[in-house]
Write a sequence for this structure.
């Protein structure tokens, strides 16, 4: 029997938050959203069946109002974007780390505290994923050297020898290579440590690359599926970084919502971090080809050899802990997910994401070479 609860979602008007709110309402839960409606991320699109507080996680008064009487909290509020984080360091640290600290202080002040806190972490906490060397030993490569990248040597090496990328489990080394990744690691560590100290059960979910209907088509700093689909739709060329063989784990929004609700309802993952992904590595070139097929269009593709500082080569999730602790198995293949995403995207107004402007900004700061 599922007991109806009041769920607070910070950042709840964003992509993941909106989908989660809809799913929780369908289950009979009450939902309260705290969101600042950042113009970079989304417009002010509120649900009639969700209580909305307009405010920031940096605002103590807004946090107190948002937390009043809630049973569980899902902390999604954060600045996102690997590249942008490398030059807007203070803003990312203030919102992601400072905002999480303020949220935890506000939780601790409640006379009746929430029973559970789930924080959205990221695969970015790992930096490069897990690899095996020729002897079968696990290797966790550091940030790639600029000299190697400039020479087109994109794959991490172990003493000059090639490595094999394998699924990254939660016990892998944590060495984020971007400011965004550093702040996400700080977020999860703060939540898990403070939750334990104040008697609030806490779980960190390390989301991989989430995509699907509802994601921002205007934010040029995150979401390559939305960026590439817009370029294809507008008949504009797609310039792919490195050699196009860099890979990511793309997980559909419905699967992310399922895993998040499971984390809210289960005590099995209290006090730990859990990967949430598809468990499948997909190269950037294959993603573009998948979008072409789903959209019935052909893109002008150029593999540039350019690279962005703070990017990684490979990372995909080991889902053993998610299966064992949460009973989570992703249900949506990339092919099906791309079909659903593109049907939705093609029905939206033509966005102006200023993607080229975001790249020019990175080049100006020496972060895109």
């Amino acid at each position: 029997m599922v007991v109806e609860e009041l769920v607070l979602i910070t950042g709840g008007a964003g992509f993941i938050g909106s989908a989660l709110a809809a799913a929780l309402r369908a289950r009979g839960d009450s939902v309260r959203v705290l969101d600042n409606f950042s113009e970079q991320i989304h417009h002010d699109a509120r649900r009639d069946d969700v209580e909305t507080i307009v405010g920031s996680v940096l605002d103590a008064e807004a946090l107190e109002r948002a937390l009043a009487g809630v049973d569980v909290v899902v902390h999604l509020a954060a600045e996102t974007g690997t590249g942008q984080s490398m030059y807007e360091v203070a803003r990312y640290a203030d919102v992601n780390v400072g905002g999480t600290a303020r949220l935890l202080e506000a939780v601790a002040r409640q006379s009746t505290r929430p029973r559970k806190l789930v924080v959205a972490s990221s695969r970015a906490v790992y930096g490069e994923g897990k690899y095996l060397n020729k002897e079968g030993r696990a290797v966790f490569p550091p940030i790639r050297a600029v000299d190697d990248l400039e020479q087109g040597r994109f794959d991490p090496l172990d003493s000059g020898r090639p490595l094999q990328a394998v699924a990254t489990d939660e016990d892998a080394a944590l060495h984020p290579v971007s400011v965004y990744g550093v702040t996400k690691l700080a977020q999860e560590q703060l939540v898990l440590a403070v939750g334990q100290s104040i008697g609030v059960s806490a779980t960190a979910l390390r989301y991989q690359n989430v995509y699907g209907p509802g994601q921002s088509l205007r934010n040029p700093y995150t979401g390559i599926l939305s960026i590439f689909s817009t370029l294809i739709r507008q008949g504009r060329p797609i310039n792919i970084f490195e050699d196009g063989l860099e890979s990511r784990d793309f997980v559909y929004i419905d699967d992310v919502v399922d895993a998040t609700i499971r984390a809210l309802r289960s005590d099995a993952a209290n006090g730990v971090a859990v990967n949430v992904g598809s468990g499948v590595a997909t190269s950037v070139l294959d993603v573009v080809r998948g979008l072409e097929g789903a959209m019935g269009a052909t893109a002008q593709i150029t593999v540039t050899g350019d690279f962005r500082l703070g990017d990684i080569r490979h990372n995909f999730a080991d889902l053993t802990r998610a299966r064992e602790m949460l009973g989570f198995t992703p249900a949506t293949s990339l092919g099906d997910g791309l079909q659903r995403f593109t049907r939705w995207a093609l029905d939206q107004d033509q966005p102006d994401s200023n993607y080229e402007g975001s790249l020019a900004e990175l080049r100006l700061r020496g972060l895109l070479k």
About this structure: Residues 212 and 286 are 17 Å apart (CA to CA). The chain has a mean pLDDT of 93.
